[in-house]
Amino acid sequence: MQSAKPGGWTSLPHMMLDLARGWGARPMLRHWQGGGWQRTSWADFARQVAAIAAFLRAQGVMPGDRVLLVSENRPEFPIADTAIMAIGAVTVPTYTTNTVGDHAHILRDSGATSAIVSTAKLAERVAQAAAQAGITLDRIICMDAAEGCLDWSLAAATPADVDMLAAEAEQIPPGRLACLVYTSGTGGLPKGVMLPHRAMLANREGVARIATRLHLDGTPYLSFLPLSHSYEHTVGGFLLPSLGLEVVYSRGADRLAAELKEVQPTVITAVPRLFEVLRGRIEAQVEKDGGFKAKLFAQALALGLKRLDGRLSLFERAQHAVLDRVVGAKIRDRFGGKLLALVSGGARLDPDLSGFFLAFGLPVIQGYGQTEAGPVISVNPPWENRRVTVGPPLPGVETRFGADGELCVRGELVMDGYWNDPDSTARAVIDGWLHTGDVGEMVDGYIRITDRKRDFIKTLGGDMVSPAKLEGLLMAEPEIAQAVVAGEGRPAIVALVVPADGAAEKVQAAIGRVNGKLSNIERIRASTLVEPFTVENGLLTPTMKVKRRLVLERHAAAVEGLAKRG
């Protein structure tokens, strides 16, 4: 098979297997195992993809079948993902932190009858979910050996012809469904976003122009977000590897500081919460050092911020140059010293937070998108970074703003719709235009997001949480009369609670019961009791609906205090 020209691939497996032919010996993936870093080459990746694909076929997995994929970031994830798609089946990536109930809904809704999981614990949870959903899983493949599961190592030893699979992958049409990525909406239950190959390939082509200018080929990318997250699934799973970066799987937040210095990545993608944590660590160290070092740090930060705004005098430029060598270089060294792009996505990045890092020469750039768009819509180029915006639209992305300011986008990146939900699809995509639910404006070709139109919460970690679901569960408890939750742009979910008569002392127990039904990202971390919402005080409509926005505005100080506690 002749190698396709860049941008000429018809599907994700076509792209990955085609690249493997030319890059066989190049390192593609790196993960920690047995006390050291282990590398997977492109050739070994392709061999295992072909083997897993052959095994799935032998097991009876057919084109169009949905396959649940539940795993931490490890090489088996992209191998399984590519193999599923290569035989025409559909990947359903889900979080390892999902509850049994979450998995049950996804299994029931997607109709998946096969699952690939990483550990015995996850295999047990998925099996319980299948039983709860009343469905039969024909097969569960476990990456780590587990009783009652098909063994990954045996599957990966299945004889297979890589060239034959690559030739088949070349025939996959761009419009074929590649994956179902479940995302929460206002109704509380996650909806399956139908992403065809063309959507993620469009993302790849749009970002490739930026990557080419940064000369990222052959450099390491530190993968921190879970591969089940729509952003990391596209960017870390396919886009960056296809641009020649070696993907290095982080061992977790507690090892991140050491990994940054050891791996020396050129690219990191993260959610704003990570930036908050990193800033906090730096500031804590400065406070611990105190004295002269703290004064130098404060001065370097102040001059760095003035530089961003182009307000340095000639004397201040000289000061900044000296302080940058003394202070800025040491901070950059903590990040490995070779970063070319520190990309923030998943939630709004406060300009003050990004300014902190930019002041010390760390290339923090904000992007924007949503699962329904592949998911990347726009990103700030490092060489013309405007921190109050989310960057210009990617090439090939059309944009327009509705009468109410809602941003709409159109192009190859837009989803096919929501699985088994034509009504939600019809509301989200109208005449090919995806209605994002975000309100904003275009400033000199750059998108600026000013508000959210849709009624769901996006936390600082980029997780989508339905307030309707949480509030419904809270008010189902006899001790709670009314409840409003908050968390938009914050690290955790908090709650304003009106107790039932005489039940104030029992509210915490009720919240504990609700938390037991929720996934980790949905759990309520802090709460406070407030006065009832009534028609008289303007917090309840005549039809007895709580005016959420007014409640949150009136109790803004309380929410802020809870967020700090949470």
UniProtKB/TrEMBL annotation:
Claim: Iron-sulfur is one of the keywords in the record: no
Domain of life: Bacteria
Pfam families in the record: AMP-binding (PF00501), AMP-binding_C_3 (PF23562)
Domain annotation AMP-dependent synthetase/ligase: ranges: 24-419
Residue ranges of coiled coil: none
This protein's UniProt keywords: ATP-binding, Ligase, Nucleotide-binding
Keyword Nucleotide-binding assigned: yes
InterPro entries in the cross-refs: AMP-dep_synth/lig_dom
Molecular function per GO: ligase activity
Designated name of the protein: Long-chain fatty acid--CoA ligase
Lineage of origin: Bacteria, Pseudomonadati, Pseudomonadota, Alphaproteobacteria, Acetobacterales
